[in-house]
Design a protein that fits this description.
Radius of gyration: 16 Å
CATH class: Alpha Beta
CATH topology: Spore Coat Polysaccharide Biosynthesis Protein SpsA, Chain A
Helix content: 25-40%
Distance between the termini: 30 Å
Strand content: 15-25%
Length: about 220
């Protein structure tokens, strides 16, 4: 994993550093629900653009101490390398298995899973996400517009298992409460607007971040 200097290390309570985990499935199989609007090469290019944006926002954020991308193919590994982000390959079993795999490699005090398809993501969103963390143990869930999860903060990094998929925001909150872990819900536009359906295309992002895809 790529580490920042001590002056850039995220601290939301004294001495707490955060690893960002960005999942990126095999590019040739990404965003298939957008097929009514985009050809395969367009979907691949869109996913590369979205991932690059999210990775660069994480890299620019003082709220993040280290970053790792969990990639599904060689193209994803090359893309992560081009952006300057460390990567590890999925070993099979789906998204949540890949995220559990990545979590075992986290050396920092907390993990922040950030999905790769957030065109409106800003550094302020990450600051707010990390800042919402509280006493150990804790979980912070940022829901997407359709009830999924745009980001998941966990301290310790494996305090609950990832449960990404339909209605995952509620599933993560339930898992935290079932484990007796403090859980918070954080709603921001940048973490809520993911790109999964044709209706999500063509919506211009707010603000002026240079990295931001114009969707």
């Amino acid at each position: 994993m790529e580490s920042r200097t001590s002056s850039q290390t995220a601290i939301y309570s004294a001495g707490v550093a955060v690893t960002a985990i960005i999942p990126l499935k095999a590019l040739d199989h990404s965003k298939q629900r957008l097929a009514p609007r985009l050809a395969a090469d367009e979907r691949r290019a869109l996913m590369a653009t979205l991932f690059t944006h999210v990775a660069r926002v994480c890299a620019d954020s003082p709220a993040i101490a280290s970053i790792v991308a969990v990639v599904g193919d060689d193209a994803g590994a090359a893309l992560a390398r081009d952006v300057g982000v460390a990567s590890m390959r999925e070993r099979g079993g789906g998204l949540n298995a890949a995220l559990r795999q990545a979590t075992t490699e986290v050396d920092d005090d907390a993990s922040l899973i950030v999905v790769a398809d957030l065109p409106r993501l800003t550094g302020t969103d990450l600051d707010r996400m990390v800042g919402a963390g509280g006493p150990v143990p804790c979980v912070v869930v940022a829901p997407t517009q359709d009830g999924g999860t745009g980001a998941l903060l966990r301290r310790p990094p494996d305090v609950i298992a990832p449960a990404f998929g339909p209605a995952s925001a509620a599933a993560h909150l339930t898992a935290a409460r079932s484990a007796g872990v403090r859980a918070a819900l954080l709603a921001t536009a940048g973490l809520a607007h993911d790109v999964d359906r044709p209706a999500d295309l063509g919506s211009p992002p707010a603000g002026g971040n240079d990295h931001r895809p114009h969707l």
